[in-house]
Specification:
2 strands, two-stranded antiparallel sheet, mainly alpha
């Protein structure tokens, strides 16, 4: 997440001029620093990593910033090519029995980014970054079956840690993203 490079959206540029959204001082400072070139970890914000990630996610969800790219993950593997068919039934049960229940094989890059954001936030807040590698690998996935496998792994870890109810809350957000 901190290797992501963000850029301001048109709404973000307007917010800097108008202050219409009522951003906190830290959110506004962060929005101003985002330049479309600097990865999030290199932004000169004096705050804990967890807070920085949270503020970036808030700005992204509010439509004030968007992902412009990212630094390649360390030891990045080349992703397998996605299936070429655009529609088929994908109710493949992932580990933990999780399915998105979609009638497509692929989802959009924007949807994957939002799912990654949700998983990243919960990974940092509840799992101390245990699933960072998996979440980094998700960037190039567009197959629903692959996404379901990642979410299934996330669910297993959350369940093992006794946080199944918190995981269900985040899964509701993920299902909303893909609808």
């Amino acid at each position: 997440m901190l290797d992501v490079i963000y850029r301001k959206t048109q709404a973000g540029l307007t917010e800097i001029q108008t202050r219409a959204s009522g951003l906190s001082l830290k959110q506004r400072q962060l929005l101003i620093m985002i330049d479309g070139k600097t990865p999030a970890h290199a932004l000169p914000m004096a705050m804990p990593e967890k807070d920085l990630v949270h503020k970036l996610l808030e700005l992204e969800w509010d439509g004030l910033i968007e992902r412009a790219g990212s630094l390649p993950p360390k030891n990045a593997a080349v992703p397998a090519p996605a299936p070429s068919t655009a529609a088929a039934t994908a109710a493949v049960a992932a580990p933990g029995g999780f399915t998105l229940g979609l009638n497509v094989v692929r989802i959009s890059a924007g949807q994957v980014a939002r799912i990654r954001s949700i998983l990243h936030m919960t990974n940092q807040n509840h799992l101390s970054g245990e699933l960072d590698d998996m979440i980094g690998e998700m960037e190039h996935l567009v197959s629903v079956a692959d996404i379901e496998r990642c979410i299934g792994r996330y669910l297993q870890v959350m369940k093992t840690r006794g946080m199944e109810s918190a995981a269900q809350t985040y899964l509701a957000q993920i299902r909303t993203v893909v609808r």
